[in-house]
Amino acid sequence: MIPGVSNTRIICFSASASASAKQVLAAQRFLFSTGKAGVTLNQIKKERFFLNATESKSDILKENEGKSGIYLWENKINGKIYIGSSIDLKRRLTTYYNLNHLTKNPTRYINNALLKDGHSTFSLYILEYCSDIKDLINREQYYFDLLNPTYNICKTAGSTLGRLHADESKEKISKSKLNTNISDDNHFYGKIHSKEAREKMAKSKLSTVLSEEVKEKISANMSGRKFTEEHKINLSLSKKNQKRISVLNIKTNETTVYSSISQAEKSLGLPKDSIRVNLKSKLGVPYRGLYQFAYVDVDK
């Protein structure tokens, strides 16, 4: 007996020359929808089921807004399945309806299947909602082991390589890398990249497109992180096309440079819309008779 699953049974199929196409397809469908433990998809309890992914698109996105959990795509033609998890189900499921996303990731079996067979041939299951995000990977792995999804290239949840290093392995790898690639051991030691090489590396990074899975992982890792005021200023200064402004206090004759209008607003307690209007004004009249605003060139 497997937790959350009704009694399992073993069914044997025999192929013969007289077997009809429907019988062969039915047997194939059963085999693809049967996991390593001999469990079929029909024997598993689910939270939600959408028979036609095309007709149910609006309901799928609406009902899963703000929820995290484990989902499963099933190809109704051949019974092949794909299992995934997300901390934001609506956002993740939306990507499966995005043609650009599907075509830009052709190595994923599920993407190719959706493009080839169409969403109407797929059913979507929400296997489980997870209130605790920490449980996502463990629960996804549980269903991997239970159903052995055909469309999943990697059989280890949370890994793009099909495997995860244990903490002990990570520590060993870290120790093995200590004091390596330094001094003469590093072939690039004492050298610097040319300006042309740096520009090429920068351009290559700009063209990198992150997948939705990577974006969600980055978002999850950054969640709850607090930046110091100094860090916030540095981030603001690093933004392209960011306009800095100088503020001259006419009474004290002191000039302060702010990284943005928003920073000046917070520091001086002035409405930013008023600061913008004053900056655009050609009259040159000090704001409230006290502050003189001016844009500062980024290179200064």
CATH topology of the domain at 21-147: GIY-YIG endonuclease
Query: Strand percentage, roughly?
Result: 5-15%
Task: Give the overall silhouette.
Answer: elongated
Q: Give the strand order of the largest sheet, numbering strands 1, 2, ... along the chain.
A: 1-4-2-3
Could you walk me through the main structural features you see in this protein, from its secondary elements to its overall organization?
This protein has 300 residues and is of the alpha+beta class. Among the domains are: 21-147, GIY-YIG endonuclease (3-Layer(aba) Sandwich), CATH 3.40.1440; 239-296, Winged helix-like DNA-binding domain superfamily/Winged helix DNA-binding domain (Arc Repressor Mutant, subunit A), CATH 1.10.10.10. The chain contains twelve helices and seven strands. A four-stranded antiparallel sheet has the order 1-4-2-3. Helix 2 packs antiparallel against helix 3. The chain is elongated and about 80 Å long. It starts with 20 loop residues before the first helix and ends with a strand.
Task: List the main descriptive attributes of the protein structure presented here.
300 residues; alpha+beta; GIY-YIG endonuclease; Arc Repressor Mutant, subunit A; four-stranded antiparallel sheet; three-stranded antiparallel sheet; elongated
Short description:
With 300 residues, the chain is an alpha+beta fold.
Helix-strand blueprint:
Elements: H1 21-32, E1 48-50, H2 57-63, E2 69-75, E3 81-86, H3 89-95, H4 99-104, H5 109-117, E4 122-129, H6 136-147, H7 167-177, H8 195-206, H9 212-222, H10 229-238, E5 244-249, E6 254-258, H11 261-268, H12 272-280, E7 291-296
Antiparallel strand pairs: 1-4, 2-3, 2-4, 5-6, 5-7
Helix pairs in contact: 2-3
